[in-house]
Amino acid sequence: MKDILTAPWLVELVRTCTNMYAHGWDERNGGNISVLLDAADVAAYLDCKAVLRTLPTGFSAPALDGKYFLVTGTGKYFKNVQYDPAVNLGIVRLADGGQTAQLLWGFTDGGKFTSEFPAHMMSHAARLSVDPENRVVMHCHPNNLLAMTYVHDLDEKTFTRTLWQMETECIVVFPEGVNVLPWMVCGTNEIGQATAEKMKTARLVVWAQHGIYGAGRDLDETFGLIETAEKAAAVYLKIAHLPWKQTITVADLHQLEERFGVKARPGWLD
Question: Which one is predicted more confidently, 59 or 138?
Answer without folding.
Answer: 138
